[in-house]
Write a structure and sequence with these properties.
Blueprint: E1 7-13, E2 17-23, E3 28-35, H1 41-62, E4 66-73, E5 76-77, E6 83-86, E7 96-97, H2 98-106, E8 110-114, H3 115-126, E9 134-140, E10 144-150, E11 153-154, E12 169-171, E13 176-177, H4 178-185, H5 190-198, H6 202-226, E14 230-234, H7 245-255, H8 259-264, E15 266-269, H9 276-283
Parallel strand pairs: 1-4, 4-8, 9-14, 14-15
Antiparallel strand pairs: 1-2, 2-3, 5-6, 6-7, 9-10, 10-11, 12-13
Helix pairs in contact: 1-2, 3-9, 4-6, 5-6, 6-7
Length: about 290
């Protein structure tokens, strides 16, 4: 007798797009995507509902019940995990009890978490980190985010502020953090920069060399603090990772204090691809 499937919906809210999936516990049944609006909260909520509605319609066609909705959103939540304190890419949702507002719009209970934590949850449970207990996930896309999976769950810290790698200072003189440094060297347009590097523009190649160096130092700092078994890299930058990943690995190994860790810690690309964050959000509904 085949095992019955549990269907959930996961929403991944990024700086440029809102994507959602209908997930059956093993695979994505359907996905849908729209642009992220930033003009006002009402428009944002309308677009979230607009990505969910087609998935609910598919579930009705399949005659299956959707058992929950999860949402992963870039930003820092309060200690309760309900209020968005600060979203770097969507300021209109700052200081909003976002789960409650989305629930009212779509008419279903919603669980929410940080997008990078959703990403690492998916990769640790069914993706590239499946066979590891200590996994650090890193998203590099519109911005930079991180999440730490340790012994079967995401680590949030005492105040739900753990793993905010984007805020890691990389230049003490100027106070520049990792995400600010990323935007600065990419001239706020990583997509264009990667295209220029791919066709051999020497200045663009230098930019990616510098980003690889900065990322490698950040990964070494994380390694020296929590000693993960593996880093899983996701986000839009994965497509251009050949431009910086080897440099990042070299820089990381040079700055890890433990020679044993430097040899063994792995850096791999996401196995679940563009849907990883949405899958991780869907998996929120299966948490006990």
């Amino acid at each position: 007798m085949s095992k019955s499937k549990t269907y959930t919906i996961g929403i991944d809210v990024g700086g440029t797009k809102i994507s959602a999936v209908l997930f059956d516990g093993e695979k994505v049944v359907m996905d849908y995507m729209l642009a992220t609006p930033k003009d006002n909260l009402e428009h944002f909520l309308i677009m979230v509902k607009a990505v969910v509605d087609p998935l609910l319609e598919r579930a009705r066609e399949m005659k299956v019940v959707v058992n929950g909705v999860g949402a992963g959103i870039a930003g820092v939540f309060d200690a309760s995990g309900k209020k968005m304190l600060f979203s770097p890419n969507i300021p209109t949702i700052n200081n909003v009890f976002l789960g409650e507002r989305i629930e009212k719009f779509i008419g279903m209970p919603v669980l929410i978490d940080n997008d990078a934590k959703c990403f690492v949850r998916a990769e640790a449970l069914i993706g590239a980190g499946k066979n590891y207990k200590n996994v650090f996930g890193l998203i590099v896309g519109t911005g930079i985010g991180g999440g730490w999976w340790i012994n079967g769950d995401v680590y949030n810290g005492s105040h739900r502020g753990a793993s905010e790698v984007d805020a890691m200072i990389i230049d003490s003189a100027s106070g520049l953090n990792l995400e600010q440094g990323y935007h600065k060297i990419m001239q706020n347009n990583p997509g264009k920069m990667s295209q220029e590097a791919i066709i051999g523009d020497p200045l663009a190649e230098q930019v990616y060399n510098e980003f690889g160096r900065q990322l490698g130092i950040a990964l070494a700092n994380i390694s020296n603090l929590i000693d993960p078994e593996i880093f899983v890299l996701g986000g839009g930058a994965v497509a251009s990772s050949d431009l910086f990943l080897s440099i990042a690995k070299k820089e990381m190994k040079e700055h890890i204090n433990s020679s044993d860790a430097a040899k063994k810690i792995k850096i791999v690309k996401s196995k679940l691809g563009a849907n990883a964050g949405a899958i991780g959000a869907a998996l929120l509904c299966g948490k006990s």
